[in-house]
Amino acid sequence: MAWATPNSMREGLAAGDLSAEGLVQAGLARIQRLDGRLEAVLSTDAPRSLEQARIADARLAGGERGPVLGLPVVLKDNLHWKGTPCTSGSRILAGYRAPYDATVVARLLQAGAVPLAKANMDEFAMGSSGEFSAFGPARNPWDTARVPGGSSSGSAVSVAAGYAPFALGSDTGGSVRLPASFCNLTALRPTYGVLSRYGVTAMASSLDQVGPIARTAEDVAALLGVMAGADPLDATSVDLPRQEALWPLRAATLKGLRVGLPREYFGEGLEAGVREAIEGALQRFKDAGAELVEVDLPHTRYAIDAYYLVCTSEVSSNLSRFDGLRYGLSERVEGQTLAELMALTRNAGFGAEAKRRILLGTFCLSKGHYDAFYLKALKVRTLIRQDFLKAFEQVDVLATPVSPTVAFPLGAKLDDPLAMHLADVYAVGAPLAGLPALAFPAGFSAGLPVGMQLMGPALSDVRLLELVQAFQERTDYHLRTPEL
Amino acid sequence: MSAFEAVIGLEVHVQLKTKSKLFCACPTAYGLPPNSATCPVCLGLPGALPTLNAETVRMAIRLGRALEARIQPRSTFYRKQYFYGDLPKGYQITQGPVAIVEEGTLRLPGDAAVRGASGPIACGIERAHLEEDAGKSNHDLHDGATLVDLNRAGVALLEIVGKPDLRSPLEAMEYLKSLHRLVTFLGICDGNMEEGSFRCDANVSLRKVGTEPFGTRVEIKNLNSFNNVRRALEFEILRQGRLLAAGDALTPETRGWDADKGETRIQRSKEGAHDYRFFPEPDLPTLVIEPAELKGALPELPEARAQRFMASHGLSEFEATTLLQSRPFAEYFEALATASGHAKAACNWMLGEVSRHLNDHGLGIGALPVAPEVLGALVRLVEDRVLNLTTAKDTVFPALLKGERDPAAFVAAQGLGQVSDRGAIEDLVRGILAANPDAVAQFRGGRANLRGFLVGQAMKAGGGKLDARLVNDVLDAELAKA
Q1: Which tens digits make up the pLDDT trace of B438-472?
Q2: Does residue A367 fall inside a structural domain?
Q3: List of domains in chain B
Q4: pTM as predicted
Q5: How far apart (Å, rounded) are the C-alpha atoms in residues B148 and A69?
Q6: Distance from CA of B275 to the nearest CA of A (A)
Q7: Chain B contacts of A237, Cβ < 8 Å?
Q8: So what's the ipTM on this one?
């Protein structure tokens, strides 16, 4: 059951061989059995999940069918599901319960999906390995001595370990693509605005996007299809063209497809095993009639710097609201001043990476530094966007590795924040440019999964999924599962 | 002292009269139980996002057009960051370097007394921008604790920044009155200063007369009435003048006005000013105003309405301006003029009995318990000479205030209707003349003021109900006879 595909689950539900309630119980049992080792889950709420499952079963019994109806989904713990804990991986929100539903969660519930658990994550989605969670790191099911990738670590592990067929993460600078790559999954970072950010604890608002995670492009499309579209509660949200083509998803033809290979993404630092796997996957595209074209994205070398300036600046602002006054951790001491309460709470509640980013961001936005840092970063961001626009005059999509390496051992980069940030080097371009990027299994290096990503022009999300569907019809990497 | 000239600029926070807040659907009503008008957005809960209330944009545009200002086709929201207990997100959403309204002009009434003989003046408006209000910290309700009410957090404000074009406390007060009248006439603010719907901060500096550069500027906070603005500025100008005359240097600082003590006191020095770390609000797209949004009729502005009152109702400039003291007052007048069919008489009632009653009881026109249609019926009775004015003022108007709704029926029931029967009045007047032969003789001998005595006698004899004009006519005719 753990490795059953959503398609087989849907058939079972339609035939009455399976029930949504049964799927929830099986998922909870698997969490019970495996999560002591994997630490992918921060909380479950069995009564609430079972209640949703029974609603779905009633709808199924009434003859209703749908892409996610009755199917379990794991939610990253920065996504608000009303009434359940929502810590965003931080001690400062330990015990906090979501007082309302995020729009993506509300739309999932509307479509009959059943939330199964809240997933572990780097604190406030800041991290590339999952190790910056205040509640301990999640483990990679392919090798539990290694990181699963972050920051949507628990979401990816939950799908990779067969807790649920679907998960939602969030992607600010690679946070669904990196764990998908390390855990052999398919995950989409949509065009900025395609998924509502309402009810997603903000990290860096101009970069944050919710990202669906599953095994295949088809399954990612099923999730995206029920959640996409402008939301009156998010002023930056947009409609997704061709949304109706997401279900059922049809493979696009690869014949004649012009695939751009940015030179800057294949240079120094790319692990040999990863390069080999990516080249193998590219050959598959070529075999199917695609044309491979080398292109340039000349401002790529500034991308990490620009990303971390924009990101930390917004983080420093977005995390200001955690002051111990209204909710979450509050370090109250009799007779203290307001400033003391805020300082004590924030010092006790935030972890090292959160503090690092708050300090950096506060510095960037300070008088006298704003022009040199934040404003400069915005200019670089524009140049990077123009690089992409120019590339898409030549090619249909860009193909790159998701990460220069496979999953690295736990602790390997923990003491070197800079090295950790460099894991994002291929991931931050798309968010800076607001473009969609789809990560998918592209092979293995020494038994560990290697992920590739396709990036396309704004709002080409559906097309990217159709292309990867075509790739997955020709390959079986995405079908491989870890031994647990 | 006369060596210095004051340079004054006012910043006014106008609370927009919208049903819901600037970035969420919470109500803006005043006086609700603390923290009841709140939601995830204005509480600053994790994951909540602002969405712009389009009505506030329309109101800002209306003000901008009335100020003949430039409406920026593209303006951006920014975050102004600081930590405080009543600022839930740790930042206030306001507008950045480009505001929705820029470079306008506010014309002050042409009262020569305001700036010597130079006549009407205009004050430049630098900008007006949209921003959200903070919550309210109450330090007095609970011993040793500050209580925070977030009902006001997120309420829409328009901050209107005037240029330093004002030169005296009186001018500043006139500016504030004109702006107040404008925003209430535009229907974008209820103008209630006690509830904080219209708040003013003043910047003031002194410079030597005839010199260009501005002196050291001091900001005075929380001026919540027209008079306080004038008094605070008068105090501050004296204070600064004394220091400068003594050769002392001023420091740029923020001072608070204490109305009870009649003085300004230092709140904080500008040197330790906050670094607000402004940056563009990523949760809100650029605010784009399309040319079509700048079309459509504006409500009639106070100045135009005054002209209309003078032209079509034959009122004086003083009368017209006084009627325009507030939009509801002017609207009551117009309704009364229509209901009575006598604009001039309606004006007299507004500036006479109605104002006296409101002033005596400290009320606004909205609290007058008499509908314009009812008062209009009374005015008509007087103008149609069914009732005399004295009875109308002394007897019928008080009855209306107590709830009487039908002046005509009341007059009939109480037998107050005036006697307009010429024959009856002739008989009565002849009787008076016959009973006062001395007075008649002295009048004819040249003591003209005895005519008034005779009129009084006649009115008295008629029980106060005689048509006074008719009495005068008849008396003149009878006196002329013999």
Answers
A1: 888 888 888 888 888 888 888 888 877 888 888 88
A2: no
A3: 4-293 (no CATH), 302-387 (no CATH), 422-479 (1.10.10)
A4: 0.89
A5: 44
A6: 6
A7: none
A8: 0.96
